[in-house]
User: What shape does this take?
Amino acid sequence: MAKMTMVQAINLALHQEMEKDDNVVVLGEDVGWDGGVFRVTDGLIEKFGEQRVIDTPLAESGIVGFSIGMALYGLKPVCEIQFSGFSYFAFHQLESHAARLRWRSGGRHHVPMVMRAPYGGGVRALEHHSESREAVYAHTPGLKMVIPSSPRNARALLVSAIRDPDPVVFFEPKAVYRAFREEVPEEEETLPIGRSQIAREGKDVTLIAYGAILHETLEAASTLQKEDGIEAEVIDLLTVSPLDDTLFTESARKTGRVVVVHEAPRSFGAGAEVVSRLVEKSFLYLEAPIRRVTGFDLIIPLFQREKAYLPGVKRIMRAIRETLEF
Amino acid sequence: MPRKEIDLPYRLEYLSILDENGEVDKNLEPNIPDELLLKLHRAMLLGRRFDERLLQLQRQGRMGTFAPITGQEAAQIGAIATLDSSDWLVPAFREMAAELWRGKKMQNVILLYAGYNEGGEIAPDLNNLPVAIPVGSQTLHAVGLSYAMKYREKKQVAMVFFGDGATSEGDFHEALNFAGVFQTPTIFVCQNNHWAISVPRSRQTRSKTLAQKALAYGVPGIQVDGNDVLAVYSAAKEAVERARSGEGPTMIECITYRMSVHTTADDPKRYRKEEEVEEWVKRDPLIRFQTYLKNKGLISDDQIDTLEEEIKAEIKAAVDQTEKRMEELGDPLAMFEHLFAELPPYLQEQRQELKLELQEADQ
Assistant: This one.
């Protein structure tokens, strides 16, 4: 097994899926000769040519609408929106068509496409380059919303997303892109969409997170173990929608105490759905109010204040301690 | 250096073959076999009569809102008749005549507008997309489809329909631009019917024509008399042949007129003058084509009457069958079908919720 960054792992998934299936095409702005602004599509055009690795005009709605057409014909387009902050141009194509064409045509057509986009803060970028709007996509019937947290699960989930018969929005935590390396097997590996994972086992409190912030959550868990002897269980959602509530329900029933963590704004965020499910399914097991540690309900500030906006280890730890002390 | 005029590669033509009196320009008359001419006529007449019947059904409360096509039969049939069955139709929402030509059942049309999702079902052997209501958004799908055809080295084309209003939408421009850049086999058919609900064509753009929009993207454009089925057919045939032989996309602007309402929820008297409509009644695409066919000795008034009866019976049979079918389509649980290939657990739970509610209601 080779140690890889998330960028390399996603690149591996694209190389292997393109090799295996000539229905897979990659398209977007700068994905060809430039290899993508984060180099995620590096080396694809040299190997698969301009027909399958398509540098498109600069038009996000065009990219997604064009991908829908290709998918309707039977191709499996993987389109890149350079930053998720520019995906709103294309939102109506996803909402009005990608998510609905199977339904509208009574099952005759379907749209097996993936829209990849780097999301989230932490890279000292300009406006529109740091936000987390997964809730918008998760709220759209007909779309799947996947957010990996590590190189290995990013690779495995992207393979599943490409093979999925329905449209998948795949948000890549750009703060993790090159943050660390992980062993990624050369041979094929997939992870089912719609399944969460236990990232750390514990018995005292349940922490639920996904994407880049999973790592701060894990750090908070291990610090608390060292400092307070607390054993926190950490659940990595991996898929925001369809949301897998089995593991976190089970865990909450065991610990009775839950903290949900995400970067995205709090109100109406993924955390709100997680908490609702917990209240519906585990209410009588809860020993303390469920806490949400999230971004504030603001537009993420420019990078000088970004750190104060994002839920860091300290903020997560405080919420856990308060939950335990309740 | 002096200022110089830039030599642009395209000029714009207007094509009209059959005038409003049914007089044909012999030099431009396309060589269409008699059998096909009669087929075009039948499809136009069916479109008109079925449209009229749908309007009655809506007025009687047996159907919901729909967008009538009356006046636009030539633009639709002239264009769609140039496709092979393996080609793709990408409609907007005012292409009923073209959709029937492509094998859509009248039953599906009625079901859809009567509020049943089943009306949107597409038979597995038809390369048609369902209607697309968000204006202009479907143009991109045609370009994606036709890129895929080119990638797979198939000699197919995709034909997309849209109206004058759609040319103000960003997606239309992105679609033309992508089609131009990738030289896809796409036929853009604009039914310029002069009105986007209450907003006239002059308010959509300052441009003299809509066809010229294509030129800016390096795509050939042509304007045709959209009430002249021979002109539409000739322009579309040329465009399809060019696309099929690898020479890329074309945009055809059909100058036509929405003789009826935008949708059944609209009252055109609020925004347009009756005299304007009367002017266009004189240019009716169906009447002039019948004159042409009669002049050619291909059809007589008696034969038209027989055909009218035949079509009337066909429509009646379709309406009757549909009403029978509706009785079988009561199950609300069908709303959970076709969202995903597999229903995820949370939707299974929600489906169960509705199922229980329905069982309680039955008791």
